[in-house]
Amino acid sequence: MNTSNRADGRTRPHVVVVGSSNTDMTARVARLPGPGETVLSERFEMVAGGKGANQAVAAARLGAQVTFVARVGADALGAQAIAGFQAAGIDTAYVVQDSGAPTGIALIGVDAARGENSIIVAPGANAHLSPSDVEAASEVIRNADIVVCQLETPLETVKTALRIAWEAGVLTVLNPAPAQPLPADLLALVDILTPNETEAVLLVGDTDASPEAAAQQLHALGVSSVVVTLGAAGALVSNADGVVVVAGRRAPTVVDTTGAGDCFTGALSVALAEGKDLRRAAEFAGAAASLSVAKAGAQPSMPTRADVDAILKN
Ligand SMILES: Nc1ncnc2c1ncn2[C@@H]1O[C@H](COP(=O)(O)OP(=O)(O)OP(=O)(O)O)[C@@H](O)[C@H]1O
Ligand SMILES: [K+]
Q1: What's the pTM value of the predicted model, to 2 decimals?
Q2: Residue span of the structural domain in which 59 resides
Q3: Which residue, judged by its Cα, is nearest atom 21 of ligand 1?
Q4: Nearest CA to ligand 1 atom 11
Q5: Residue 22 among known ligand-binding residues
Q6: How far is the CA of 292 from the centre of ligand 2 (A)?
Q7: By CB distance 3.0 to 4.6 Å, which of 20, 50, 97, 253 could disulfide with 74?
Q8: What transmembrane ranges does the database entry give (predicted)?
Q9: Structure confidence by residue, pLDDT tens digits, 182-204
């Protein structure tokens, strides 16, 4: 493993995240507008998001050395995103500022009374993240402890990252979100898959399947470890050692679950890269994710290692 020693004696694993970076623009409204209608917002917020970026920030806050491979626009939002990554200690040498597309954005309307969302995602530069961007980082990927991908960038790009890692014997994690069916040759490159319940059943094409049955079908497709997140209930962990539900940790308070799944995948990856077995890694990830739901937004809610270690002691 390509780990370096830290002052506290714990090894510092190297996590490479390949994925999306968005700016989430959230407007709370009394009710969502219909076609042709304009409504005024009582509160507007702009927060760094995107599943790849969220997972990279989660891993960095939890003590990993993180390299992020991504594309943002050559615009103010892109510069702001990169500054945020650098403030979190993330290596941004492979974050390209694309002059041909804007930074990805998510326009989120929140119906304040009903708590419902309407979301428009404009992927912008994320759609330009190419296999050659990943190949440019191939040396870094081959020397990493773990590589983490999601599905907000082109599938060929994801496959390239997984293949480079797989061929070098580097652990691969795929968070298959947003939900979509995946080709068998891509799944065959995944060591650890982290779907939520919706994504798990969609992947196996059987919306009536239980999380456990879906995990079994995913094993048959060549994925050795499956962790299905179950919201507040925790996560179902399935691998060669068997199947177990790691119970959820009670959140101190539930303010905003945005980014909980990303926090879970980022934290799970750090724990696996440190050599924890899948079950213990899922306990660690559940503890981290329970803290993330107590704070608003995605990236601002990712907990520190000290916060997670403190609740694991209890
Ligand atoms: N209300 C909650 N209380 C405590 N932990 C939670 C809560 N909601 C989510 N979690 C933690 O976050 C993990 C991921 O949540 P979930 O299964 O809802 O993923 P998700 O659908 O990808 O989430 P999101 O889209 O909101 O990021 C759970 O496995 C759990 O550990
Ligand atoms: K949150």
Answers
A1: 0.95
A2: 4-21+51-102+126-313
A3: 196
A4: 289
A5: yes
A6: 5
A7: 97
A8: none
A9: 999 999 999 999 999 999 999 99
Annotated binding residue at 230? yes
Residue 302 lies in a domain: yes
Q: What is the ipTM of this complex?
A: 0.98
- Answer yes or no: is 26 within a domain: no
Q: Which residue in 91, 98, 262, 309 is the catalytic one?
A: 262
* Distance in angstroms (rounded) separating the CA atoms of residues 150 and 131: 14
**What secondary structure does DSSP assign to 71-129, as a single string?**
EEESSHHHHHHHHHHHHTT-B-TTEEEETTSPPEEEEEEEETTTTEEEEEEE-GGGGG-
Q: Residues near 277 by Cβ (< 8 Å), separated by ≥ 6?
A: 241
Annotated active-site residue 262? The verdict is yes
Ligand 1 atom closest to 258 (CA): 26
**Domain-located, residue 121:** no
> How many domains in the chain?
1
CATH code, domain carrying 270:
3.40.1190.20
Nearest ligand (C-alpha, residue 294): 2
Q: Which residues are 107's β-sheet partners?
A: 25, 120
33 within domain boundaries: no
